[in-house]
Write a structure and sequence with these properties.
The chain is α/β, with parallel strands linked by helices. It has a domain at 2-155 and 179-239: Spore Coat Polysaccharide Biosynthesis Protein SpsA, Chain A (Alpha-Beta Complex), CATH 3.90.550. It is 36% helix and 23% strand. It contains ten helices and 13 strands. Strands 1, 2, 3, 4, 5, 6, 7, 10 and 11 form a nine-stranded mixed beta sheet that branches. Strands 8-9 form a two-stranded antiparallel ribbon. Strands 12-13 form a two-stranded antiparallel sheet. The longest helix has 18 residues, at 243-260. The chain starts with a strand and ends in a 7-residue tail after the last helix.
Length: 313
């Protein structure tokens, strides 16, 4: 899978490519109760990529049933804000991130869409430029996934690049077992990703947290691996959710995967889990066998050992 770093895509070069192709770019920020962080996310992107360098045409915050001041904070920072439930109400409304992204297709104008989470605390405008790079450079690329060190603060004050519990415990095993050709995707559930509008408008979109996995699986199924790219965005920090909330996310992923699974699991001899660690600032794959053998019922073993003329004990 084609992989690059955000440093490979300088903003000035992207602006030239955007202008030459007359491409419009929208940044979409789905948000629910993120008044503490959404304002800075919007303000930083607006200053760097709208005011200082006119790369982004619009920054749209999709307010997904917030009960705090998320919408007003985002609007004051310079975003166009839409409440997801108020967009095309005749189509109905559902709670969830995927619903907000689907509704964003009805209120944005960009040919290229960059999705950025609203709860970021360690990040930079290079998240957007890095994700745009492969799309502006190659018309054959339809979907770009970001990946990064996920930094979290431990109870003792230390930091760790582990994290992404649903990724490690659900998404990565699913890909390794059922879609091994996609196991090289470092962060399959990354909230920072970019896609062409034509792709997004052609896909079925789960209304919840399954949207990242479904988009990855469906793009690969329709266009092949050459339509995918991933970009190393450095490091990322954000708030973490409770285990009970993550369990719902995990269940959504299982639903998405089961709906798209059209072949049996690989035989035990080929069941391998691909994980990733950081080494020298770059991701390094780690391959581990998945124990999949099952012993037969012991009574059948005893019966076979006894032979046809001897009763099993």
């Amino acid at each position: 899978m084609r992989t690059s770093r955000w440093q490979d895509w300088p903003a000035a070069r992207l602006l030239a490519a955007k202008q030459q192709a007359s491409t419009r770019i929208s940044v979409v920020i789905p948000a629910r109760n993120e008044q503490r962080t959404v304002g800075r996310v919007v303000a930083v992107l607006r200053q760097a990529l709208v005011t200082e360098l006119p790369l982004v045409d619009e920054i749209v915050v999709m307010d997904s049933d917030s009960t705090d001041a998320t919408g007003s904070v985002a609007a004051r920072a310079g975003a166009t804000v839409h409440r997801a439930k108020d967009v095309a109400p005749e189509l109905g409304t559902f709670p969830g991130k995927g619903e907000a992204l689907w509704k964003s297709l009805l209120v944005t104008a960009g040919d290229l869409l960059v999705f950025v989470d609203a709860d970021l605390t360690r990040w930079g405008p290079h998240f957007v430029t890095g994700l745009l790079g492969p799309l502006l450079a190659d018309p054959g690329v339809h979907l770009v996934k970001g990946f990064y060190e996920r930094v979290r603060t431990e109870d003792d004050g230390s930091t760790s690049t582990e994290g992404g519990r649903v990724t490690e415990l659900v998404a990565r095993p699913l890909l390794s077992l059922w879609w091994p050709e996609l196991a090289s995707v470092v962060q399959p559930l990354a909230g920072e990703w970019a896609a062409r509008r034509g792709l997004m408008e052609s896909l079925s979109i789960p209304v919840g947290y399954g949207v990242e996995l479904s988009t990855l699986l469906d793009t690969a199924a329709r266009y092949g691996l050459d339509a995918l790219a991933q970009v190393d965005l450095g490091s990322r920090a954000h708030k973490h959710q409770a285990d009970h909330d993550l369990a719902v996310m995990a269940a959504e992923l299982l639903v998405v995967a089961e709906a798209r699974r059209d072949r049996p699991a690989p035989p035990p001899e080929t069941a391998t889990l691909r994980q990733f660690t950081r080494c020298g600032g770059a991701p390094r794959p780690r391959f581990r066998p998945i124990p999949t053998r099952e012993r037969p019922p012991l009574v059948t073993v005893r019966s076979a050992a006894a032979g046809p003329d001897r009763p099993a004990t």
